Amino acid sequence: MAAPNDDRAVEADEPGVEANTRRIEASVVTDFSDRMSYGGYLDLDTLLAAQRPISRPEHHDELLFIIQHQTTELWLKLVLHELESACEFMRADDLAPALKCIARVKHIQKTLTEQWSVLATLTPSEYAQFRGVLGNASGFQSYQYRAVEFTLGNKNARMLQVFEADPAASAVVRRALEAPSLYDEFLRLLARAGYDIPAEVLERDVTKAWTFHADLVPVFAAIYADPEHNWAAYETCEELVDLEDNFQLWRFRHLKTVERIIGSKTGTGGSSGAPFLRRALELTFFPELYAVRTEIPG
């Protein structure tokens, strides 16, 4: 039998678990008096101080409501960052990194959609106890959401008036309004690659919402008819369809969460509430990519 202190015994300073307690390895840095820490890098003091419930007395569930919307805004910041980069890559005819950006956005979209299930734990009775303190604050006023929507092509210049009181927000939305959308950039890339994209599409007013162009359907039909020889374009079409599908799922979950919590009440921002959100499901980004499916034989 080996002695308790022989070569096979665990040294006191070696990693391990004893009495359900994990030892800290000797190499782990613990002195941050003059080093960058996790909290410092993330500016956690600022981030975690940004949740300021205003109900009095403070209602337990208001923190959930605030965090739900703040985390959504953080994800929207990243979505906008990725979509803008995807547009830049497409302008440079560099499709591979553009698709990587889109793939990341798709994962973020799934997270945002699943996040509605957390807010759905808020019952009508609970929300009613602090809804009044919101005044006219509403997700409708999210400038990042609007910039994402514009970057995907669903533009509406009248929305700018919502952000007139906030010059920084207004600048972000206006930039997205005036820039070619992701779809515009893709169609321009296809034109440069030799696909027969109509001139009226390439020269359109990019500040207007995208509307259906029947002349594009044959172009996409040819791409789908021979995926192997049109793989880059074919793959991008499918990635864009994924983006729209995910966006519509997010919109639907938003609608159903609102109906679950406030029923048919009007929105805090003055909208009709659920009916207004339901009409958003009629909006589209890439209608020709859905229309082409009817034209594919089989």
UniProtKB/TrEMBL annotation:
CC cofactor: heme
Gene Ontology BP term (one): L-tryptophan catabolic process to kynurenine
Cofactor binding, per record: Binds 1 heme group per subunit.
Family matches, as Gene3D superfamilies: 1.20.58.480
Lineage: Bacteria, Bacillati, Actinomycetota, Actinomycetes, Micrococcales
HAMAP family noted in UniProt: T23O
GO molecular function list: heme binding; L-tryptophan 2,3-dioxygenase activity; metal ion binding
NCBIfam families reported in the protein's UniProt record: trp_2_3_diox (TIGR03036)
Domain of life (superkingdom): Bacteria
EC annotation from Swiss-Prot or TrEMBL: 1.13.11.11
Keywords: Dioxygenase, Heme, Iron, Metal-binding, Oxidoreductase, Tryptophan catabolism
Binding site for substrate: 65-69, 127, 131, 268
Protein name: Tryptophan 2,3-dioxygenase
Pathway where it operates: Amino-acid degradation; L-tryptophan degradation via kynurenine pathway; L-kynurenine from L-tryptophan: step 1/2
